[in-house]
Specification:
mainly beta; 9-stranded mixed sheet; 9 strands; about 35% strand
Length: about 160
């Protein structure tokens, strides 16, 4: 039997991100698109709900210090939790803090347009866990194929 489309592979944080991640900014609700008509009618903004777990989705922008290509280093990660996840670390620079994710999963996706398609991943996590060390101090052990980043992170093996 084939693996169904949209399957999420559980992956250890240290395997996906050997040097950790750096959170840029804050965690925010992942809201559904609201049309001009919805805004004009005064309809409330609705937060997205994860189709697999039925819990709320939150989004955060992160940077992977292990990524050599600047265009692919920053991307959004989806956090799945009933309440807004709060990072467990302090800021090392204004608006930047090293993080480690709990309950990490990766979903393979095809990204890009036309003849410039490539393999990428959508990462989801259930929250934050205390980091064992600051980001950027663990030795790099990953090999990444090339690609271009959008809202998904290419080149990380699941």
């Amino acid at each position: 039997m084939a693996i169904p489309r949209g399957y999420r592979f559980d992956i250890a944080f240290d395997s996906a991100f050997p040097q950790g991640l750096v959170l840029i900014g804050n965690v925010a609700p992942d809201n559904e698109y609201q049309t001009r008509e919805d805004k004009a009618a005064g309809r409330p903004v609705r937060q997205k709900i994860d189709e697999v777990t039925g819990t709320r989705q939150w989004k955060a922008t992160v940077t992977d210090p292990d990524e050599p290509a600047a265009k692919r280093a920053s991307f959004e990660i989806t956090l799945i939790a009933d309440v807004q996840p709060v990072p467990t670390t302090t800021e090392v620079l204004p608006g930047m803090r090293p993080i480690q994710l709990d309950g990490l999963s990766a979903e393979p996706r095809v990204a890009g347009n036309g003849e410039f398609k490539y393999q990428s991943y959508v990462y989801r996590a259930t929250g934050f866990t205390a980091t064992s060390s600051a980001a950027g101090t663990r030795p790099s052990q990953s090999i990444k194929p090339s690609g271009v980043a959008g809202s998904e992170q290419p080149g990380k093996a699941a």
